[in-house]
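Problem 12. The chain below contains 593 residues. Write out its predicted structure in token notation.
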Amino acid sequence: MMVTFKKLLMLFNKREKNKLLILLFMMVISALLETLGIGLIVPLVSIITNPDIIREQPIIAQIYELFKFQSTTSFMIFSVVVLLLVFVLKNFYILLYQYTQNRLILNQQVKLSERLFNEYLTKPYSFHLQRNTSELLRNVNREIPKVLQGIMMSGFQLITEGLVVLCILSLLLVTATTATITSSILLGGGVFLFFKVFRKKMIALGKEQQIASGMMIKWINQGLGASKEIKVSGKEKFFVNAYTKQSQISANNSRYIMMLEQTPRLFIETLLVAIVLITMLIIIFQDKNTTTQIVSTMALFAMAAFRLMPSINRIMAMITTIRYSQPALSVIYDDLFENKQELSNINPNPDITIVSNKTKKAFNDSIRLSDVSFRYPNQSECSVKDISLTIPIGSSVAFIGESGAGKTTLVDIILGLFKPEKGSVLIDGRNLYDQQTLWQQKIGYIPQSIFLSDDTIRSNVAFGSDIELIDDKEVLRALEQAQLKEFVEELPDKLETSIGERGVRLSGGQRQRIGIARALYHNPEIIFMDEATSALDNETEKEIMNSIYSLKGEKTLIIIAHRLTTIENCDIVFKINKGKLVAIDNRIGRSAM
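Solution.
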């Protein structure tokens, strides 16, 4: 439990921890008010059963004289009103405390979700190659609420109810020592045995549920994402069955958890009834007690049992929830704090003095690779081996080779997505990773498979930009360069046309041209094309490539392609085979290799 507590505290900054201390103080006040409300039951019952106590008890007698009551009846009415006011104020305070607690925890849930999502987006590309998207989606959407509500909120309720139980037991201990000690031993022993039996099962269920949740998201994503292929191949039943299997596992786990959540209430209810009856027998058979003392003490124990029963039920339910949610905390903690080796691809001391200037080109000389080698995590062979080459800024170059030759990996290194295991990548003579942010701001990247969001053409071209900051003139310029402006202007809603999820309302070629327009929208200095025209017909490809090649000199073009027609106007062609640079076709006067 202490390990869980330490991991949980790591998720809060200093200011947030101070707020937790304030909540802790409010918990103590809440517990004291609960005890005060129950403690006032004893004198009230004593007064009702024996009015002579008003004059026999010094403190009660002083209150009676101070307010100059004329009769015991009026004093009794006063006592009832005071007790009622105490309960009203206590409940109002508890409501305020609950609001404060929920506000803190739910705000922290938003912050932690933002923090984890940001952590995933800023992780190096190699991290995303090793992790499943469904798993990351589950962590942000489901595991964070489990941590904050299942552990944090349950923890607060556990402490609050624990303090209430402690204060009430202290009051009972003063009133009836023997009976209270006996009751506490029986109650504590019963609770301990319950959790001894079910503890491991709770944690195991939490882990199983975590896996099942991720798999459910995975099968939904795959089924809906490949709906066309599934319909053509008639594989609907396979995906439905795969999802249903995980859904059934999740339902079974939930059934067990619901049963475990109900079991403590029934167990404690039976145990407390037995304890109250035993306590009554102990009080009755103690000869020193008068009838008034017996009645008032039994009333106190009855009221205490009435208040303790829900408290102990909540304590046991909260412990069950915390145990069940522990695997979620482990996953979140590991991704935020333990998996920092994934950041090895990012330079720890970037040059933050570099400032982008839109009116001046940031890079003017060359991109130079020297003896670059790279291997993917958990692989023995290098995907790129000892490659050295130079790309002059303003030139157009192509990388060719068979599938799996290492072309895309090499380009990913130049993009700054991978850091080489050996060798260096210099941009204008400076290490790429010392100016990585500026370098990537100046890149327009066109992949083979374009991601399109369920939004308008405008928003997809200016992807990642706030709607009020989008420049329609630049959008239209980019669309024109991508040979799509005429098509868009013929649409009824023009730039406001919604293209559907993943661009389902566009043809394959139109989707690819949206991706090209997106890369050109920010007017980049370097354009990377990774099989970007492979989905286009020959004529459209020729038109787009002519438009792209017209930018030669103004922009640096780096192209991965299989079609030789795509690269016929390139200045330099690099041939890659089995991770090695095997040939250079220099078409601007440099010697061939």
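Discussion. The CA atoms of residues 23 and 438 lie 44 Å apart. Students who got a different answer should revisit the alignment rule from Section 12.3.
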